[in-house]
Amino acid sequence: MFSIWEQQALLRFDVIIVGAGIIGLSAAIELAEREPKCSIAVLERGPFSSGASTRNAGFACFGSLTEIAADIDRIGVEGALQVIDARRAGLELLRKRVGDRNLEFEMFGGYELLFPEQISALDHLAEINALLKPMFATQVFRPADAAIAKFGFNQKAVAAMLFNPLEGQIHSGKMVAQLMKLAAERGVRIITGAEVTAVADGAEIATVDCRFGVNQPATFAAGQLILCTNAFTSTLLPDVPITPGRGQVLVTSPISGLAIRGAFHFDEGFYYFRNVGDRVLFGGGRNLAFAEETSHELTLNNAIQERLEELLRTVILPEKHFQIEHRWAGIMGFSSTKLPIVQRAGNRVAVGFGCNGMGVALGSSIGRQLANLVLGSPVQK
Ligand SMILES: Cc1cc2nc3c(=O)[nH]c(=O)nc-3n(C[C@H](O)[C@H](O)[C@H](O)COP(=O)(O)OP(=O)(O)OC[C@H]3O[C@@H](n4cnc5c(N)ncnc54)[C@H](O)[C@@H]3O)c2cc1C
Asked: What percent of the chain lies above the pLDDT cut of 70?
């Protein structure tokens, strides 16, 4: 039971965005900047973003050599370059919007570790560098074998290394906190603890059923509804082709004399680690159990956690003493083509998803494309 005042001013908006991750908040900021008179609300089920945006590793990256080679095999050169360019543009937009200091952006560069069975990836080095040169105006991937000893990795296990000077790393919690602040400053109402249970499209308006706290229901209405619910979109719109993929990380205790600085990947990006000050954050391993990790559950898989810990102790930090002090999981969303998807899902409903594990870079691009779609202008990067 709601008063007429509540119905008119608190439950009805020009645009409602569901999901306060990087895509939802970027779309809200973009819309508020371009249409300041538009009333905009973001409905988020958690106390803040509660999917991937605050649970990731904070790599500001656009793809390692083995990952790009795998993408070229899957979606062709044109598709792979298109997605890399959207990541490049998105990262540029995020840095401009939030600011490097607010993001705690650190430009230590990115590295890829190649194990003996992956050494043939180097056959693609010249070709992929040539493809990327027009976009980045520099040689992106450079041999860096001396880094194996410099960072203290197991020299018997790691056969070669590559360096990419264009990658950086951020503090993901601060990124989302700043995006929430920017959205609120532009008049966006962010309503947390609001779990959307159903959406309905209509000729004039779209409606959103919501559950608050202990089953307190409310129905919101909007001229335009945008779902930025990542892997959870399929629970509201079952026909939207997005597949969940759970990602897990662990973080060590502070390690004295830690040499590791930068964003490191291996195995087509299925594993990734970085320094967080003098700690190491290590994540991945989804490829060890694809079926089990196609999950919406924010729980840990012990077998994957054990494998991460083993690789950390034997390959990445073989000489160091440390404990594991933090572990968590987050849920990514994968599109079938590896390309981001921004599209209408009805008269009054749009969806934007498909960061495919690289939302720090892609999220702002997708937010801008959603604003373009909703405001009716041509979709552009
Ligand atoms: C462990 C891990 C490591 C990663 N590492 C990196 C990395 O280093 N670099 C990188 O670029 N990317 C990384 N990613 C991927 C990146 O975090 C995502 O691509 C990105 O955050 C997706 O943003 P999003 O806005 O689409 O989704 P999300 O951040 O998942 O936001 C969706 C939001 O919708 C909300 N929601 C869902 N359903 C409902 C509902 N019914 N009602 C209300 N709200 C709802 C969720 O609570 C969530 O806040 C990683 C992901 C994980 C899980």
From this structure: 98
